[in-house]
Amino acid sequence: MVAGPRSRRDFSTPREWQTSPDRKWSQLEEDERASAMAKRGEAATDEGLTARRRARREWWAANGDKARTRISTWRARSGPGAAAAADGGDDRDDGDDPYGAPSARPAAGAVMEKVIEVDGAWHDQAALGRAAGQARTDFFAEVSFAQAGASEPLVRALASLGVDAPSHVQALGYKRVLHGQDCLLADRTGSGKTLAYLAPIVQRIHEQEALRGVTGEPGAPLAIVLAPTSELATQALQTARSLARGGVPFRSAVITGDHPWRTQREALGAGLELLVSTPGRLASHLEAGTLALGAVQTIVVDEVDVLLEDEDFQPVWKALREGVPRGASFVFVTATLPKPTEDALRAAFPGLKLAKGPGLHMAVPGVRHVLVECAGASADVALREKLGALDASLAQAQARRTLVFCNSIDDCRAVENHLQRKERRREAYRVLAYHAALTPQRRRAHLQEFVDGGSAEHLVLVATDRASRGIDFSCAEHVVLFDFPRRGDEWLRRVGRVGRGARGGGLVTSLVLPYQAMRARKMLHKTLGQERLWIG
């Protein structure tokens, strides 16, 4: 039975809630200690406790063994004046008790639509319906592609892809990439970063061939794009070939561990202008002598924050920096820019030009967010609560394409097994998996089916963060964070799988445990209020 919203008592913000986030986390830890003491039958001492903390301990003593699920629905307000729509607008916690009734004051830039207590049953009141996508007005820059630096052939090629106006990052970075400057392209997911570097690189290749007859020699490409995964590399190649079909022909190939060595060697030997690769396979071809760096003019490092954290990338990175000709340019691309990554790039490339889009480290406007708090007396009970919440969110959203993110392969398999049992009973949808435990062939097949649709109307792709690294899921309507991300940059990448491009729209459902609830709320309050999330 679903109870109505709890009584809206006026929670004035106590002094201890007006302090630092560390103090807020200590209150959560205090609650967890109280819960553990209640389970052991120990009495809590009242010495030094505020009345509010005493009330919390009493609540845990009475209700700590009862699993509970709570839903909060938030919708971002985009555009001017969003922050002013809320009462107050500061960045502190708004007095929302993680274990009690919510305060009436909404967060800056967001509107709390409904808070519902759920006890074992789910109803349509849960407000988990699919959000209707509306075209975003903040996606495009105020200049045309021609004004940004694109030639007439490139403008026509982009138009053949349905891209008539540049996004912010495309406009900011076009001339810098075209003129061979070291630059960093950073903007939120779905902002068009792949075209932001590919279009000017292709224009440069096309112009050099037309003016001076410069083309790629056997084993010596003019431009190299590095991507962390074979799926992202393949996607970049497909985008490049789409441009070529639009009237700016050039030769390109992809080399990854998913494709036969012989085929790759033959493609390199035939000569090409653009090469897309993963770091490991690039290193293998350099060692084998089937690839040379002597003609390279531009190197693109996509998802640079991910690659720089990978120790296996360091030897490849060193070989590239030492092997390319003097004057070759480096282009770095990312959807999240941790400060250590930016500092390292600035130190290595003192003249680095930055093209940061206005949406960097902010949630996509127009995407609806639902926060579901799941609690239980044990890990098994909490897992059952999360699986029940997952079932309910899928049933209510009725999205044709849903991405479910987990933190580990084991959790992926648990979710897969649960959903596949429903699939075998023909209750729901087709379930696909996407993680490192699968063979490359199965991953590729599942990804292709999810994107293309196949014969099933409703598809669910259960994935690890491998699916959040740059892959364009423009078909996705619903993202479920079955496990809440460990870091802020992971959260931004996952939720960025919906609401991509200018169309916007979509739904994100986050399933959180009690100790994660406050952090989740703070992230929603900040990013939905169109503030930047700090990525350390």
TrEMBL record:
Compositional bias segments (type: Acidic residues): 88-97
Transmembrane segments annotated in the record for this chain: none
Region (Disordered): 1-106
Keywords (A to Z) from UniProt: ATP-binding, Helicase, Hydrolase, Nucleotide-binding
UniProt cross-references to InterPro entries, sorted A to Z: DEAD/DEAH_box_helicase_dom (IPR011545), DEAD/DEAH_RhlB (IPR044742), Helicase_ATP-bd (IPR014001), Helicase_C-like (IPR001650), P-loop_NTPase (IPR027417), RNA_helicase_DEAD_Q_motif (IPR014014)
Comp. bias intervals (Low complexity): 75-87
Example of a GO MF term: ATP binding
Domain of life assignment: Eukaryota
Domain Helicase ATP-binding intervals: 174-355
DEAD-box RNA helicase Q domain location: 143-171
Helicase C-terminal domain ranges (all copies): 389-536
Short sequence motif named Q motif, residue ranges: 143-171
Annotated PANTHER family: DEAD-BOX ATP-DEPENDENT RNA HELICASE 50
Official protein name in the record: RNA helicase
